[in-house]
Amino acid sequence: MLELRLGRWKLPLPQFTKWGPRDRLNFRTGMLFLLPWTIGFLAFTLYPMVMSLIYSFSIYHSKAPLEWNGIKNYADLLTDNLFWTSLFNTVYMVAIGVPLTLFASFFCAVLLNLKVRGQALYRVVYFLPSIVPTVASTILWLWILNPQAGILNTVLGYFGIDGPNWMTNPAWSKPGLILLGMWGMGNTIIIYLSGLQDVSVSLLEAAELDGANWWQRLWNITVPMVSPITLFNLITGVIAMFQYFAQAYVFRGFQNLGYPLNSTLFYSVLLYQNAFQWLKMGYASAMAWVLFIIILVCTLLLLKVSDRFTYYAG
Amino acid sequence: MTTTNLPAQYPEMGLKVETEETRQRTRRRKFRGFFQSLFSHTLINFVGLFFLVPFLWMLITAFKSNEDVLHTPPRWLPYDNVRVDVNGKMLPLYNVQTEAGTKQLAAVQIVEGVGTFVDPNTPDQLVEYEIQQGETKIAEPVMHVSFRWQNFPDAMNRASRPSINASFWVYFKNSLIIAFFTIIGTLLSNAPVAYAFARLKFPGRDILFVIVLATMMLPYQVTMIPIYLFFNNFLHWGDTFLPIIVPSFFANAYDVFLLRQFFRTIPEEMCDAARVDGASEWQIFTQLVLPLSVPVLATVTVFTFLWAWNDFTGPLLFLTSPRNFTMALGLQDFQSQRTLIWNQLMAAATVFTIPIVIAFFFAQKTFIQGIKLTGSKE
Hints:
Largest interface: A-B, 96 and 99 residues
Helix content of chain A: 55-70%
Largest sheet of chain B: 6 strands, antiparallel
Strand content of chain A: under 5%
Strand order of the largest sheet of chain A: 1-2
CATH class of the largest domain in chain B: Mainly Alpha
CATH topology of the largest domain in chain A: MetI-like fold
Low-confidence stretches of chain B: none
Number of helices of chain B: 15
Mean pLDDT of chain B: 87
Oligomer: heterodimer
Number of domains of chain B: 3
Shape of chain A: flat
């Protein structure tokens, strides 16, 4: 069988053999079942992809006909300061926010996996924030991070820490957003927790008999055993973070997008602004394709690199 | 416990041998166990506060009065001005520093820093005091712990902006309508697709499934602009719910994958038996597989509700007039005003969150199962 291999992942390639009448019948039945997806794929994925690729090479603002622009949109991106600012902000979140959140959620999952009375209740408490709607949780955190009447700086004050102006200081707006993300990381915690529960008890007990302490067992058995889950969480986290939008859109309050000082102007926010506020739809489409390529390269790179660090049992 | 004459170096003989040494070891282990458990409890509670306190703060703020909400430093419980009955009117009570010491007086009105007060005991004598003289406060409201339930109707009956002829009830209703139809569409469209990928054998199936999975990698930003133009300029569906609801009737990669994973766990022999009995694939799907799949369909329902209720980008792109706003959009619009009324904002945010919390407590297992399924590898 022909297949495309990428590390551990195999993509089957279609085999061109002659179809018998049975094949034809099966194909017809199969395609009938697939009809909703096929229409959806053509109308909401393939057609838009082709169109946005065309837009990305043209000047287009929906009111006037399309005007061919060559690769100028892509070339303009290179000299667009806002583009680089937004890319920097996004990479900041991907490089700092995602690993931090991953680490914190693993830590929380380890806590929730301890044999402690009332664990069921703790699990609910840790998970509940993740189901609060994004707009509600972002507004809540704006209120918590409020420099005067917010509770975060009040609580920091109890420990003698003079909290920063989270929302108005460009250096602290992104850490504020990372905190907001960590508050709602219940999903990642649950995925980690289910992975921790699958770690073989006999293996851990054998290590304990051999005199390994808690930390050694965690580092040498648990961490490698959940490494496929870490990879999964890492990839989904990176993909989602490159598309970070709603939180940043709400977080500026009544200020301009990107407030304070473009520090929350993320890639998708700038793209939205280009497309729907400045009606530079061709330019925004070019941004979208660059984003797609960045995400693709990052994912493939992670898959490739992870092969050495990921352990698959069986 | 029995003490025997056996030497301590033969514990493996299965006899409990207790010497001074083993007794000490047990004591030490118990001692250490106690501290480990204390440490775990402290840590899990401490981290738990990070998740719990913001949630509680939303509720507490939702119950605060206007006088209390911007108080610095913030108070951990909702406070309200004490009110007293003066000639049938409920007036706020103040601590006022008068010539004869501090008195509790009711405020009739406060205009430009000058308050007109009245002693509740002598309701007909009005006196005037400046609220503040230099740095010292002359009159300060008397506060007590009080939950202001009125914030909830106040928030829900208002619109996101004063000039708008709609209310948060309308936004709530719109969110419900969109969530309802999105759930219907998702259930109807994804199950047959997933069944085909899970149980039917036909040429090209595997490569099509790879395409399904590949679409997960495609960022929404790539297709967003053409889809927007298609719905808005071509179909003229702008400012209706249709652009948000209709795509859900055409299957999506996540739900197809989730359902397929479940369908594959249904024993193949059952389907084969039905096939031998002459059942068509459609009959097997609707009469055999679907009834067995109620749990996973519940998962899809709950997650679709969560997703549709939470969705911000869709409504932001397509809904322009306030009477069509969803809760997410209305809340953001409310928050984008310069005069922020945090207690009402938090009350509206609470109402926005409640349906999901209710769904969670009714379907806790379904929730957790669904997250684990999405996290499971193939």
